UniProtKB/TrEMBL annotation:
Signal peptide: none
Recorded GO MF terms: glycosyltransferase activity
Record-linked Gene3D superfamilies: Spore Coat Polysaccharide Biosynthesis Protein SpsA, Chain A (3.90.550.10)
Family affiliation: Belongs to the glycosyltransferase 2 family.
Domain Glycosyltransferase 2-like intervals: 23-187
Name the record gives this protein: Glycosyl transferase
Organism of origin: Caulobacter radicis
This protein's UniProt keywords: Glycosyltransferase, Transferase
InterPro entries: Glyco_trans_2-like, Nucleotide-diphossugar_trans
Amino acid sequence: MTAPITETVTDNAAWSTAAPRLSVLIPTFRDDPTALLRALDGKDDKAEIVVLDDGGGDEALAARIGKLVAGLKRPARFVRLSRNAGRAQGRNRLAAHARGRHLLFLDSDMLPDPKDFLARWLAVAGDDAPVAFGGFTLDQTPIRPEHALHRAMALKSDCTPAPQRAQAPEKHVFTSNLLVRRNVFETIAFDEGFAGWGWEDVEWAMRVARAHPILHVDNTATHLGLDPAPVMAAKYEQSAANFARVVAAHRDVVSAYPSYKVAKALKAVPLRGTWRPWLKAIALAENLPTPLRAFSMRLYRAALYSDAV
């Protein structure tokens, strides 16, 4: 029988007396969030920070995070899990520690773009928005050859301005930079049936959109954590089961997405087991042109998803 997940909680000196309006929630799994924590620190207690180590098992990293959290001027709490809970349950656990009326989910590999990043989010929270997504960029992300494919794909499909995101509000919601009013999240939490990487945030937004408007604003943060192509492929392979879960629950919504339509078309092509590995091989070939690799990676993802449509 698997032992239950336990938590170890450490607060800094400013935590106990604070009454924050905004709770910044940062999950991490073997990623170093210290640059983000330094960028978010400030003298006011209008916003608090909660960091969750999702069972990463890296004692040296945990010690660095704990030391930094202890020295922050802003109210902060560090939560360590005894083992990995996963992306959905981890975020639900983070929300349970929050005290603000609004929750701001930020991935640990993000870095705010505007200097008044938290002030802008506090203004959106002051308008009592139920859900808002701020967007992300690659403006501060180092350019590295091994990340060329991920950079090209992210710039094309993910780094989009608010008016474009607003055309399909639930599709362009990621937990990388997401504001949620507490009572909305208490009613509609992340589905802990999702495992591994992918789709748990979009599926959550599909459920939220049935009851609340989703606001898109331009208050971006840079995504620092680009992946090499083999890691991207592994994540897409891992996400196929999650995509199937989304299709089962929200076919009426997801059937309008290009990824679904391409997957549907590829399902009719025979011998997928023969040609699908070739798409992956092209995507991983660093000597080939990046646009060709990106096209092949998108087709490979759709081919993986074709089993679910």
